[in-house]
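Subject: two folds for Thursday's group meeting

Dear M.,

Sorry for the delay on this. The cluster queue was jammed most of the week, so I only got both jobs back this morning. I'm pasting them in the order they finished. Each block is the input sequence followed by the predicted structure tokens. Could you check whether the formatting survives your parser before we put anything on slides? The first protein is the one we discussed after the seminar.
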Amino acid sequence: MAITEGDVSARLATVVDPNLGKDLVAGKLVRAIRVDGGDVTVDIQLGYPASPEFFVGADPRSDPRILQSLRQAGKLSAAQATP
């Protein structure tokens, strides 16, 4: 079964932004979700400069919490951040 935008949104709802105290979906940080076959693109926009306590690693696109959440949807064989 192919992954859907709803699957992606549900998984992103499990990642909490510590600055807002809300998940990425409830905090309205997810601007767009696009699914094209096996490729998923997610646009996340913060309303503040990215702070080190939110993102793990140097690049927010590779935050392992977000990538792991998408992998746990059970429909992605790999999740990878791209510029």
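Second protein, same layout:
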Amino acid sequence: MKYYEAQLPSIVRSLRSIAESLDKIKETIVSDPGDEVEHIVHAKKSTKEWSNCVICNKEYVGFGNNAEPVAQGRCCDECNRTTVIVKRLGNTLPDDYKMD
């Protein structure tokens, strides 16, 4: 077994942890009604093109991310970090090391 194959489960766990931390930070920033960031988010919504994520159906602004192999279409950054990248990394593991 190659070194990187042995490290993939640890990398996947780390990515999930990072994604959870980023989600908590995002919730904190956007949930504070007095925060300038919320006003910036709403201002951007009116001037940029918004789309719906094919995975969670939430709105996102911008180009989005390729949702393959989870779904066909485009997904938001959150689903890309927490679902798509994790699935892609899992697909690179030999069957004996799959986490699912």
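Two things I noticed about the second structure. The chain has a mean pLDDT of 77. The helical segments are 3-31, 36-47, 77-92.

Cheers,
T.
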